[in-house]
Amino acid sequence: MDLFLPLYMDFDTDLLAYLEGFLTEKRKQRFLEILSNRTNFLTVAIEDVYQLHNTSAVVRSCDSFGIQSVHVVEERYEERLDKNIAMGAQKWVDIHRYTTTENCIASLREAGYRIVATTPHDISYPLENFELDKKTALFFGTEWNGLTDIVKKEADSFLHIPMVGFSESLNVSVSAAIIFQNLTARLRNSAVPWQLTVQEKLHKRYDWAKKSIKNVEQIINRYKE
Prior knowledge:
Layout: H1 13-20, H2 25-35, E1 42-47, H3 52-65, E2 69-73, H4 83-86, H5 89-92, E3 94-98, H6 101-110, E4 114-118, E5 125-126, E6 136-140, H7 149-154, E7 157-160, H8 172-188, H9 198-212, H10 216-224
Parallel strand pairs: 1-2, 1-6, 2-3, 4-6, 4-7, 5-7
């Protein structure tokens, strides 16, 4: 199962070329540059984060460090994405929403991901010792209680950020940014197939072109006439 392409299965490469004709060369090259550093080898799941600016900040960090997809569980708190704080990142990162943690985990497992809980645990790995040898879904929990028992029970592995001060935890968005920077930097220097596929890149070029053009639906309708 390809979890990340369901909206673009009827893809038209001629339409992509047509739409990209409305973009500047600089814009098109920028898309190619960013896509060359995008990955779905790592993905992120945010479980019922109450402070909406934290969810938004995590999405922005995903965009900054090249993680293409985010999975948001909104079982207790709905609409945890603030467009102003995400600063437009939600346009460039794929957001998948779920009403239950169980559904989120099931979808990720079906797509071939191991479930990794980011929480201190008796058998958790320090960040620097975590091995990037499998497709990985990183789960982050609420500000007060952390991840639910469901995630901890279903997790294939546990990951924590080593700390040497009095504070035992970090804000969820800060923790996420630290982990993303470390893992994506290591991933790009590894031999694992971390980049988007050719098909995924084409689909994102199409998606991003649509989001960059005013009155795009009218333009697409003219193309189809």
